Amino acid sequence: MPEVRLAQEEIRRHNAGTLLRHVHLGGAVSRTALAERMRLNRSTIMALTTELATAGLVREELPADTGRAGRPSLVVRPDSGQVYVLAFDVAVDRLVAARVALGGIMLDRREAVRPRAGADLDRVVEVLARFGRQLHRTAPPDSVCVGVGASYCGMIRPGDGMVRFGPDMGWVDQAFGTELGRRLGLGLPVSVGNEAHLGALAEQQRGAGSGFQNLIYLHGDVGVGGGIIVGGKLLDGDGGYGCELGHMVVNPYNGRPCGCGSHGCLEAEVGERALLDAAGRPADLFGRDAVRAVVDDADRGDSAAQEALHQVGDWLGIGVANLINLFNPGMVVFGGMLRDMYPGAATQVRARIATNVLPVARERVRLRTSALGDDATLVGAAELGFSDLLADPLGVLTRTTR
Amino acid sequence: MPEVRLAQEEIRRHNAGTLLRHVHLGGAVSRTALAERMRLNRSTIMALTTELATAGLVREELPADTGRAGRPSLVVRPDSGQVYVLAFDVAVDRLVAARVALGGIMLDRREAVRPRAGADLDRVVEVLARFGRQLHRTAPPDSVCVGVGASYCGMIRPGDGMVRFGPDMGWVDQAFGTELGRRLGLGLPVSVGNEAHLGALAEQQRGAGSGFQNLIYLHGDVGVGGGIIVGGKLLDGDGGYGCELGHMVVNPYNGRPCGCGSHGCLEAEVGERALLDAAGRPADLFGRDAVRAVVDDADRGDSAAQEALHQVGDWLGIGVANLINLFNPGMVVFGGMLRDMYPGAATQVRARIATNVLPVARERVRLRTSALGDDATLVGAAELGFSDLLADPLGVLTRTTR
Q1: Are the C-beta atoms of B226 and B203 separated by less than 8 Å?
Q2: Which one of A64, A125, B178, B390 has the minimum C-beta count within 10 Å?
Q3: What family does the Swiss-Prot or TrEMBL record give for this protein (chains A, B) (predicted)?
């Protein structure tokens, strides 16, 4: 039956990808542990690791002394020298590019300050493509670029990386992914994702939420973005535009105006401007340094700064409580600017959760700040770049040449 | 390799289940269409249908005159005479039991009014088990009960059908699923689900949202429950307690008190009591007839009733707009009491969506009332009862005997 032959090939591909994903995300792991986790026998694991090692994707070595008698199981680790991805991050205040190896190791990076206003597609792509070509050129001659991922602070059409709406830069329907791919000239497509979506995936795969199947990531900068993992997968919705938790209305009748045209959205009540206004800072001040100054002042006992964090924290708590009722998550992660703000607002957030969330829905939830910090979105972009390789390691290597 | 033999067996089981699901949900379908939809060749489809027909689960027959020349493809339909499930619905105002055949055909049913207050586990289970045994006893002697599903108006622990919280009946940690299974005495476990979760699945499988992979179902009765389909699957969250959209706070500072202890929850602002109060109805009036009377009065031009629907509709709109921003769904379905209320509140709901939802996230969403009406939850319970059979049709038949 042809179906069965096809299925066997699919199973082998799936197994090779799963094994590579285990060592890519988990680091060195013994063959025995791989066999247990993948529910395969040891001879199948051996065949798969041999194939991946021959392709230069993993290395096998004897473990350090295990202290046990008997022949130790070989340890499999990602080979960080053979393949890499390029990862890009277009954030509200910076443009970043990095070369990232299997195992998630940042090998090299370039970064530029981005002015808050006046960044058109051409200029942004030009800077990123120049960084990318530099990173590619300076890579070891025998290494291969297997994918390109990019994070963007806006709403992205999944198929082609079109920016449907980039509120911060005033972009509407800009062909960001296609243009970046063309200007890089590597013959590789660029996978683009929303920054908070990618931050959520990064925190779930390599950060605070490792192992959590249901996780909410809130990313604060000028506004508030969200990435929501449901059953181990990013919630994308019908067009890929889900997770817009920043535009959940929490204050419908006295709400601050929001950049989206509405009032009382979560991001209008807890975003950068809301905090700076509440703390009585001048209207022309902005950016993460200004936010951190409020947090630092609160830490030093400034009551106006403390009160500003409490006020914003109450709105944040209403939003987070709503999300816990809806998603019954195992973890909520505060990232971006919210990582700095959360500790000073945690009492208010916890109080709202205690009041507003049904006890059964909150009995196991944990609240954490981002473990990857400002790099969460870049790490997520790198993982997006690796996704083809992890789906079909040997197929991608065959198709990709430097 | 033993993995491959296992995989072949798994593939066959998966294919048999998928084929049966196609005819169970879609009705009569030609072998040719099945081959196309399942991406299998015709000989594999023939082998699968022969197996399922021998087991009495499907019938094959010549289609009505197709008007085309050549040999017509045989049509496969569910055989509604051989197997059935028992489905139960514990709603705020009634207890229902039904015997449901493959293809979703309601063969027989029993129903009792449930008083609003004072229903303990023992009494509810006694009524349902009596109905269930009657339905089982009067089934044709050669038919087999292959599953039992139940819908309950509260928060359910997925594994064993424990009611963690049943606000309407005051239940906390009541072993509903286990007790109903024991009292039925059929030797079958009872799968229990939250009523709005099951309503969502029913509308997606057999109702207004057929074919939609991202769908939000709002179920109104005393409160407002939700079932949310994300990527074709019910959002359950870490413990199975997700989708509690009725406790999303929409009116944090002037909100009506909610049964959960908080204020301004969606269900406090749009539930039965909110509508009846807004319409100036007496405080001792309740139930779906009272709600329908407000809707009827509004339809007849009563301005107080119209104004009440508009007021409730504005809050409903805020809640629905938040949900669309979060989930980017293809469809929102209004069920239960909201099915009656929605038409008189649609203008307010649509206005809130236009104001509060990002254009990209709402460009494809459709708003509909429930197609299954008051039976949505019961239909969902029946589908829950069928899930084991559809996962492994021949395995379940082998294990189940009347």
Answers
A1: no
A2: A64
A3: Belongs to the ROK (NagC/XylR) family.
In A316-394, at which residue ranges do the beta strands (DSSP E only) sit?
331-336, 366-369
Find the CB nearest B237 among A1, A253, A328. Answer: A328
Give the distance from residue A237's alpha carbon to the nearest chain B alpha carbon, in angstroms.
5
Measured distance CA(A157)–CA(A377) in Å, rounded: 17
Q: Are A154 and A165 in contact (CB under 8 A)?
A: yes
What pLDDT score was predicted for residue A67? Answer: 65
**Partner residue opposite B238 with nearest CB, options A2, A233, A329:** A329
Structure confidence by residue, pLDDT tens digits, B252-278: 988 999 999 999 999 999 999 999 999
Domain topology for A83-198+377-399 = Nucleotidyltransferase; domain 5 (3.30.420)
- Nearest-CA residue of chain A relative to B40? A3
**Secondary structure of residue B347 in the 3-state scheme:** helix
Mean pLDDT of chain A: 93
CATH topology for B2-78 is Arc Repressor Mutant, subunit A (1.10.10)
Backbone angles phi, psi at B161, to 5 degrees: 70, 25
Q: Is the Cβ pair A361, B40 closer than 8 Å?
A: no
pLDDT of residue A134: 97
The predicted model gives A183-197 an average pLDDT of 96
Strand B75-78 to B29-30 pairing: antiparallel
| ipTM given for this complex | 0.90
CB contact under 8 A, B244 and A214: no
- Kindly give the parts of chain B with pLDDT less than 70: 1-6, 65-69, 116-118, 401-402
Structural domain spans, chain B: 2-78, 83-198+377-399, 210-371
